[in-house]
Amino acid sequence: MIALHNISKKFGSFTLADIDLQIEAGEYFVLLGNSGSGKTLLLGCIAGFIQPDMGIITINSEDVTRKPVQKRNAGMVFHDSAVFPHMSVARNIAYPLEIRRYKKKEIALRVAQLAELTGISHLLQRYPAKLSAGEMQRVALARVLTLKPDVLLLDEPLASLDVQLRSGMRQLLRNLNKQGQTIIHVTHDYEEAALLATRVGIIEQGRIIQTGSPGEVFRNPRSAFAARFAGFRNFYEGQIAELNGKKVFSNATLKVVVADGCSLGNCFIVIRSEDIIISREAFASSACNVLNAKIQFIESHHDYTEVTADAGLPFYVKLTAHSVKSMNLNVDDNIFLHFKASAINCITV
Amino acid sequence: MGVYNRVSIFHLFLWLLGALVLLFIAAPLLGMFFATGKHEFFHTISDKEVTRSIGLTLWTSMAATLIFAAAAVPFAWLLARKKFRFKGLVNAIIDIPIVIPHSAAGIAVLGFISRDTMLGRLGESIGISFVSNPAGIVVAMAFVSLPFLINAARDGFAAVPEKYEKAALNLGASPARVFFTISLPLAWRSIMSGFIMMFARGMSEFGAVVIVAYHPMITPVMIYERFGAFGLAYARPVAVVFILVCLVFFALLRYLSNKSTE
After folding, report:
1. Would you call A290 an interface residue with chain B, using a CB distance cutoff of 8 Å?
2. How far is CA B261 from CA A82, A126, B19, in A?
3. pTM of the model
4. Which of A253, B158, B243, B246 has CA atoms 20 to 30 A from the CA of A131?
5. B262 reaches A (C-beta below 8 A)
6. How many CA atoms lie within 13 A of A247 on its CB side?
7. ipTM attached to this prediction
8. Per-residue confidence at A229, pLDDT binned at 50, 70, 90?
9. Closest Cα to residue A19, out of A63, A59, A57?
């Protein structure tokens, strides 16, 4: 378990203030925040690169606040991977083991195992200059895993990867977590948070303003900042399958047509709340998804109104106050939700 | 082919100026080589006094480089990585030997190592006399050439992204191990280039060395002495031989350092 008690750090005009956080063993904790929110700084505090002005950090109930970096067992994967350019991939992975004076045979064995696990066995003799960003991240990950770290710290590990590599890397991280590896992952990408986290924290201007499961945090944002991810509030887990020549997403309560470009299998779908149209009557239009729903809440914000409608699962729809008024929408009204298949983003798991 | 590739009069003028500068450097050297006859040349390279002097110059300057590098290179790392008070002042102090007249540097060094100073007595007690001794030559050479190594090494370390050092610490390496396995190898090219610069500067030093030790005679002092006592024609072959030795050495060191960083 990793615990931060009242961590504060002043950095010029920026302050990390009163950070209180507990991450249980086996959790995949994603800290979500914009650049400059202090998320990387916080990771630096846990790794030991940055000494907090106040507060205590414990790893497995041991106070490590004053412990030097090299004596903490908190393995970090840097944003730009930091694979040593003057060593081969194999030597990079062996580096932490050489420090601990492992026998040559044992090192070779561990290196081979980790290369296998991270899918880089074919790269062992290469030098970093000849690797792609994705391969570098895997090397960095393999290298840090040799330590069997108490916690794995990831600083935007997917940011430099293209879409295809991302899903492979996500799978790898998820598997590691399933095998019991505690992970703290910082990112500005809510998609990453939703797809990986068992728990999410939102950090803004050096303060953690909300923690909870991804569903809780995205559906009930507790601040304007978290609400900016509100476009993401219509997200649903399920499977995509082929049905009568169309691709259809479904789960226990929902069945919608998605664009032909979506891949089959387990996935999340995301529908921006601006992309949903509300009507009183069902009518034919270019939107191929029409759902029957009942209004649960109508909530006015200063520049828009949000209607929450129950169509088996809650849907969030953004409207102008004017539309709500002219349509005379009220709680418990039966309505129809229309959205185009192309308005649905599919995120393959 | 755009406007950019058109021959402009201005660019032709720049080429002309460049050629003049190049000629200015090459002409005196070439003139000296051509003025030296085959006979004189071979006579000089078989002159025991000359070869001994060249040998002395080479090993004292190499010794100065190696001995002082042991402390200067780690110091350069500190200068590249750590923030501390008066850092600007420290950097300025390091550059002093470059900007002062070398004869003045020689006077300063002599005052520091002569027999009645603490360092002089300390040396005497373990059997090393600095004045008129290769040990004094080493010290004088080091004094005037150290800035070249420190500056090159500092720039080299500064160019190594800090993330590699951080990553190594994070992987459990001690600061000493990080220095030897990460910082030093990654800055190696700059450090080697600093070595070569310091070695070259020490080898060609005249002003500071002549004050600390006229004898034993390093080659720059010998060239000066032969010029003063016997004239240009007598000093020239020694100069030619020494320049050739220097060039061969630098070519060799460059080759080796490029090879070691490949």
Report:
1. no
2. 20, 17, 33
3. 0.79
4. B158
5. no
6. 20
7. 0.82
8. low
9. A57
**Three-state DSSP class for residue A258:** strand
Q: Taking every pair of C-alpha atoms in chain B, what is the biggest distance, in angstroms?
A: 75
The alpha carbon of A274 is separated from its chain's Cα centroid by a whole number of angstroms, namely 23
Q: In Å, how far from its chain's centre is CA A335?
A: 33
Element containing residue A297 per DSSP (H, E):
strand A289-300
Give the separation between CA B9 and CA B18, rounded to whole angstroms: 14
Cβ–Cβ of B171/A85 closer than 8 Å? no
Report how far residue A135's alpha carbon sits from residue B147's, in angstroms, rounded to the nearest whole number: 41
Rounded CA-CA distance B130/A277 in Å is 93
Cα–Cα distance list, A224 to A37, A184, A192, A308, B87 (Å)? 14, 24, 20, 18, 45
**CB contact at 8 A, A291 and A250:** no
DSSP label at residue A60: T
Span A71-116, pLDDT tens digits: 999 999 998 889 999 999 999 999 999 999 999 999 999 999 999 9
Rg (CA), chain A: 23
CA distance B177 to chain A (A): 8
CB B211 within 8 A of CB B106: yes
Task: Look at the alpha carbons of A130, A138, A140, A160 in this order and tell me if their dihedral is positive or negative.
Answer: positive
CB B130 within 8 A of CB B199: no
| Amino acid at residue number A146 | T
Q: For chains A and B, count residue pairs whose Cβ atoms are closer than 8 Å.
A: 58
Q: Residue A230: is its pLDDT beyond 60?
A: no
| CB B132, CB B214: distance < 8 Å | yes
Digit-coded pLDDT (tens) for B11-55: 999 999 999 999 999 999 999 989 888 888 999 989 999 999 999
| CA–CA distance, B147 with A183 (Å, rounded to integer) | 47
Do strands A255-258 and A246-250 pair parallel, antiparallel, or not at all (unpaired)? antiparallel
Contact B174 A70 (CB under 8 A): yes
* More confident call, A304 vs A65: A65
| Tokens (6 digits) for B46 | 């078989």
Closest CA to A287 of A297, A276, A298: A276
